[in-house]
Model the fold of this input.
Amino acid sequence: MLSENYLVPFSASILPKGKLIVFAPHPDDEIIGLGGTLLQAKAQGSDLVIVYLTSGDLGGDSSVRKDEASEVCRRLGAKPIFLDWPDRSIAIDDHYSEVIERIFIAEVPDLVFAPSPQEYHIDHRATAHLVSKAIRHKTFSVRLFHYEICKQNESNFLVDITKEFFLKKELMAVYKSQTVQNNYMAVMESVAVSRTYTLPHDVEYAESFFEVKAINQPLSIVYSWRSKEPFVNTRYQHFPVISYLVRTKNRKDFLIRCLNSLKKQSYEKIEVVIVNDGGDAVDDIAESYRDDFFRLKCISLNESSGRSAAANTALINATGDYINFLDDDDEIHTNHTRIFLTYLRRDDRLDILYRGVEVVSQTGEKLSVYNDRFDLGRLMHANYIPINAVTFSRKFIDLGCRFDEGMQYFEDWDFWLQLSRLGNFRHVPEVTATYHMVGDSAASPHMEGKLDKLSHMQKVKDKWRSKWTSVEHGLLERYLINS
Done:
């Protein structure tokens, strides 16, 4: 049975920085639930957007409530969005969901806050499910938090608001139309005090959240599994096999350097699959590393099959739970595997993670770094995620994802576009790999030398243009406008 520190935090967390959107079913929910956290976000200089879904007409004069909410937003420096839906009318259907999706596309938040689905009020619960439905169609990296309004709910993230609580009360006092109807001040304070139960004694007030790790799953699944977790063994027993797939051709020195970087990983369950794409024999090199890895395979093709076919040969022969390509002109740093495992253990539904990659010249000069957050619009325009940056679940292979053998170049870009439709890219902003710029690469995803880059890029775009939805085309257009 799990210990109590698995069910509730015993230390406060720091609010992540980034653009923040709050979905408030009614004007005042945002202050009761996370007024202190919003004050911290304001102090950090974060952009704030508060979406008020209903007009609150059953709880008073809707025009008065809108004026109160506007004043609260003015004090917070937040952008208000009023949807003016009638009270108790929120439905979890495509019409309402598309409205929320359009807000996501327009605002591109880093952090999203919605009420907990465990709340009492029907609008609170409906908002939670509506936001969850819309966010599953998101096309950028985002973190989703559920906040509590009038009762304690599932919690895995506590924020110390001791310093902000007085100002939170001042913000709540702006909602005069509501505080005269119910003792919201006392309710708000009692919940904030009760949330300090597991925190150090100097924390007087706290706000509680549940960060939804599996944002691509319906909330019914997320919370039903959570209710079973207290009865699960606490030990982390899954030690996945990670397959590193190496394409090579006539570059033995590079292959040795690449394998040496794999050898330095501080993790035992590493499988290495080498595909020699019709080049000089490398069996002797592979054999010299056999004892260094959990498994090692070397597949030698009689003649060159091309970059995509070599990649597919590697995929077919990989048996690991997770896969990472690493061409012979690449290296990974000692923390590359460790960082992936760290995030996997925090969220066992993690299916795609990428880190930063530095590009260096033949003389060792650093030329550039690829280390940007995920943006589907940008990925639709051009690839900016090197192939050695990404570790992904083999489930995508089981679902039929393969490299397009009709593409001579940019096959990795096409592959990422496939994965983006089936999974969630997560970016960790740490540089953990190196690509060595050596000119016209035979097995690398980076294009230099004689390559007609624009024509090959156009081939990828032509393939995908008819597949993209109107929402995806909108993301591409927005990226092009803003870039």
